[in-house]
Structures are given as C-alpha cells and as structure tokens.
C-alpha cells in the first residue's frame, strides 16, 4: 500500500547498450515492464530513423497475418485461445535472424492462399455461368413448339399492317439469356421501341439463385431479321444481360443440357477439393497464427523503442534515457545483464542515474483490487508527482457515500451478488473479447460494485430497509399503553416518547417507524442531518490531507497562510453546526422534568446557524430558552469573527509574503553587484499574484458553502430511493397479494411478481444505482479532492509487452 498512499519515487536513468545486444536487452525490458523510455530523436523524422525498414517489415508481416485471419473467419474456423499466450517467455520475441524464416513461411502461405482463392473464384464463376446456362436451356423448353419449328406465323408477331410483304417472312431467330429482375421492365420497353413491337419476349424466374447474387430472370426474345438481331444484342449489352447460346433443335438442347450437367458435376467436385485444400492450409497455419501475431507485435514494439535511442557512432553504443521506479533499479540492471549474455557479449551494458529538473511521471503501483478505484481518480486527473493519492481513501469513502444514498439490504444484496459473481469467475470472464464497452466498464469496476453492495447492505440495516420493508430482529423499544379499541378507533392517537419508549433500539431505526404516520417527516429530518454531518467530516478530512502534502513538499508557509485559515473557517462555522446537531440530540429529552429541555423547546439548528451568520436572534417559545447553553451567543460571535478574519488572512498573507521575499532578494542582488536588482525573471507580476490569490480565496469561501449544501444529495437520493421502493411494493406486488380468489390470485401474483422483479432491477438497481454512483463520483471529484488534490501530473507508461497485448484484440 506504500505506492497507493503516495506515488513511487522515480529516477531518470541513462542506459548504454552495445548495438548487438540492444534488441535482446529491450526485449528483456519489455517482458519486465518497468521502464518508460524518452525520445532522444525529437528532431528526426520517423522515416529517417535507423530501424524504419524493420518496422515496415513487421507491418508487412502483420498485414499477412491479418489477411490469413480474415480468411479463417470466412471459413468460420476458430483460432486457438490467445489469452493464455500473453505472458509468454522471453524467447517469444523473435530473433532478428528468425524473422527471415517467418517472412518466408508467411509469404509462401499467403501465395498459396491467394492462388487457391483465385482458382476458387474462377471455378465458382465458371460454375455459376454453367448453372445459368443449364437453367436457360431447361426454362426455354416451354418457349418452343412441339414440332420445334421456329417458322411461326407472322400473325403471332404483330398485325397484318406491320408486315409489308408476307413473302419476305422467313424463319424466326431468337436470343436467350439472363437478366436481373430489377432491369426487366426497362429492358422490355426498350425492345418494344427498337422493334416497333416486332419482338416477342418470353421470361421466367430462375429456379435457383446463387447465394449473394441478385434475383435473375431467364428471357428469350424472338425476332426476324439480322438488323433487328444486332439491335437486340446492343440492348442486352446496355442492360448488362448475359446472353447464352441455345440450339433451336430439341435434340441438340438435350445433348447440350446433358453435357452442361456433366461439366457442373466435375466443377462441383473440383470446387470441393479446392475448398478442402484451402481449409487444410488454413488449419495448419492457424495453430501458430496467435503465436506469430504475438511475436510480430513484440518485435515491432522493440524496434519502435530502439528508434527512441541515440546512436553514439564514436563509442559504438546506443544511448537511451528512461524513467525507472527506484525500487526497480535492480530489476533493470538484471535485464541489462541478461540482454548482454543472450548474445554472448562480454561487455555488459550499464546505466547511470542523472539529475533533472523535469517533473517525473506519477506511478501508483496497483493490483486487481485497487485498480478500479485508481481509475476513478485518474479519470479526473493524474496526481502530481509524490502527491497524496486519493484512491487509497476512496476504497472506503466511495462505497460508503454510495451506500448512504442506496441503503437497502435487498438491493444491496443484488448488487453484491453481481459483483461477487464477476470477482469469483474473473479469470474466465476476463477472456471474453468483443463484449462491448459497457461490459468492460462493469467488469473493470467489479470490486467497486462488490464493495458498494456490501456497504449498501450495512446502511440498509441501519435504515432498517429491505425492499421498503423493515426487519423486526430485536423487537421494538416502543410500547403501546392503550387498549385495542382506543388504538383502532382513534386515528389522531399519537405515542408520547416519554411514556411509550423503553431505552434505545439496538441498531439503526426502530421497525415501528414503518407503521408511523409521520415516518416521512422523521426520515426527512434524520437523513438531512446525516448528510450534513458526513459532508463536513468528508471535507474536513480532505482538507487535512493538504497539510500532509505541505509537510512532504516542505511548504511550511502554505500551512500558516492557507491551511490554518481554511480549517478555521470550515470548523468554526460548519463544524460548529455539526456539533450543535449532536448537542441537540443529547440535551433534549422527553423524560426530563425541565420544560426548557423538552423536545418542544429544541431550536432549529438551521435557523440558529442563519441567525449566527446574520448577527440576529429569534425569540424562543414560552418557557423555552433562546440558547442551548450559557455563553452560546458570545461563542458564536467569536466564531463568526474569527471566521471572517480568516478571509483577509487567506487573501493577503501569501501575496505579502512573496512581495517581502522578492524585495529582500532584490536587495541581496544589489549588494552582490547586480545593477538591475531584479529577481527571478520568470516570476509573475505582483498584480497577477494578488488577483490569483483573490480568486482562490473567493472560490474557497463560496465553495465551502456550496459544497456543504451539495452533500444534501445524500439525503435527497436516499429518501427518493426508499420512496420509489415503497411505491413499487405497494402498487405492484401488494395488489397481487390482495386478491382473495384462489384461482385468479396466484396467476396475478405471479405476473405482478415478475413485473416487480423487472422494475426493481431495471429502475431501483440499475438506474438508481447509476445515479447514486455518478453523484458519489461528483462528491469525490469536486467536494473532496478540491481541498487537497492538484492532479497536474502525467502518468507513468512503461514499455510492457503485457500491456501492449492486453490493449489489442487479436
């Protein structure tokens, strides 16, 4: 948990590697994954770097692997499981010499696949053409007469007026082919126009269509004359109709159909053999394809990293700079030694720690449990280097504040079950690929959901709320001292706590409040006060973390000029209001004999706080006291006075301190012979410092008020959640329970129960849960983290093969 409290210390190292050992050394570092390299070739184009050709070769290998993968998907062939190969040994990164063998193997496989695919496409094209020809021949049988004479009477071609000379009538010719269904209407019209109605067109739908092709029709156009034949062929070409040869003789057509069917059978057999050969090639290559993909990706990452190095030609070595956690320096030194020994190099690579003014990256070492909470904080902003990490405290505060709004034992149990399922079967569920972004978000936050469900069960037990119903585990502290007729007959009867209670309920809220007519009024007051108490406590805790940062960075002046006035302003005003809530609960008692200490004389804490800020007073009721204790008025005046003094304290002390320090530095520079007497030329003008400090002061004062009010969302959402749950129970499930019929009642109850379960999960668990989650996230990002968190750092992104392979789907 050390790095969760504060980011790990980082050092900038300079690495000297022999060129022949550079590849193996970087490969070792990629397997370890604890080094973030810097680019030492910023001024050099990517196309002018040393290992550009190797990266292009890797790109070409990836292209071939991608092509073979797509071919596997076309054949519905399943690749072997890849996730088990992510944590592969160091040898999985290809040796540069082995790259030639892989290139040759993939080149041969790709060429064979391309050849098989080309042959298969040609065979399929021939098969489709022969199949269409067969259907043309079979469908045109109905278009001819039984005598197979095409010397049809010219009266079938048109009227007598259209035939100029009957003696010129000869044998009819015809053209047969196939055309797409959507073009037949225009095709028929065009034939009519060019022939003036002297073309007789017959058509029929294909009995079978090839998968993926548009629906087509078989047509036969009868005509007379060579000139008309030429026009019809041009029309067929214009409408992209395919013309097929068709004999006019019945015997010739039968012979041709038999020949076509025989050729189709041969082509079908060849197609099956080609497809079997294609699948055998793909099956052989699929065994090694995931491993090759990992190898190539690792190799490409290594060469990309080597392009970040600077090459020292004179010393014949490669120089790189990288950020390394101080705790991992020994691991990096071990990778340097292993990288040199892997190539048999006697000269061991080494590293030097160098000093720099550049801010190091932020690295919080996490595990599968803390990673989800760290992601919530990083989504707002990466912590500055060595700054307090709020994710450590969010592990508890985040699910707790969520549960304050979502407190229900039943709903919390549903959420806990879902979170536990994802945590128990996380190894199996983590292998799911392509499940969508929503599933990735849920699975990434599985431990957050688990804790949110667990805390919701706890707060639900405190609220004594289980699907809007109460649990009577410890009995009740209330006792009814009236007879049954009085209780049942008097609707205005109220129980006096002085005579009707026996002690305090064991845990949480007494179950008798479920039957009380003023339950909403009680819950409203109770939860509103709790939200203010939790809010002020949460903000005060966030403010206390700022002093830890000040001490660590030795900003002693910030403690005096910022932290002390800020904490005084918060505690003396809003912390005092929280104290008065507890004091009010303790002081006023229904069984006391003093009238001023009875609940009826208890003043409103909110009205009291407003009067304190406005320096006014509200007269008490008869027999009651204006203040809760002696000296309260003087103490409140003192608190307000000190709180108001904190505003100029925050506003002027820091700018005046900077002004005095600059003036002193200028005097020292003048004594040392600096004629201009100027300080640091990069310092901001004093006017900007005053304006900036004024903005920060106004922002803190106003945000303290607005943030305290913002925590009232805990009260609002908790009350809304319980009321929605109660409405759903009363309006859906209870209606089925109220039906007395032993026949219809169970059916309606069953349907209502299904509806109740659906709306409970859809509305109260999913929608209300998402709403409470977002409000909790806002309370942490704005109200809590603004008190101490800068979030101006940049993340530590190490060179890691594991991260590279997990981010990409194969």
Q: Any descriptors?
A:
810 residues, alpha+beta, Alpha-Beta Plaits, five-stranded antiparallel β-sheet, 25 helices, 6% strand
| Structural class determined from secondary elements | alpha+beta
Helix content: 55-70%
> Average pLDDT, to the nearest integer?
85
Distance between the termini: 34 Å
Percentage of residues in DSSP E strands: 5-15%
Major sheet size, sense and barrel closure: 5 strands, antiparallel
Backbone shape: extended
Rg for CA atoms: 42 Å
Question: Which consecutive residue ranges, at least 5 long each, have pLDDT under 50?
Answer: 83-91, 146-169
How many individual helices? 25
Let me know the number of strands: 9
Give the topology, please.
Layout: H1 2-5, E1 10-17, H2 19-32, E2 36-37, H3 52-74, H4 98-139, E3 173-180, H5 184-195, E4 200-205, E5 216-223, H6 226-238, E6 242-244, H7 250-286, H8 289-306, E7 310-312, E8 317-325, H9 329-342, E9 350-354, H10 371-380, H11 391-405, H12 409-424, H13 426-429, H14 437-444, H15 446-463, H16 484-489, H17 497-500, H18 519-552, H19 556-587, H20 605-614, H21 632-671, H22 686-710, H23 713-737, H24 744-784, H25 801-807
Antiparallel strand pairs: 1-8, 1-9, 2-8, 3-5, 3-6, 4-5, 7-8
Helix pairs in contact: 2-8, 2-9, 3-4, 3-7, 3-8, 4-7, 5-6, 10-11, 11-15, 11-23, 11-24, 12-15, 12-24, 18-19, 18-22, 18-23, 19-21, 19-22, 21-22, 23-24
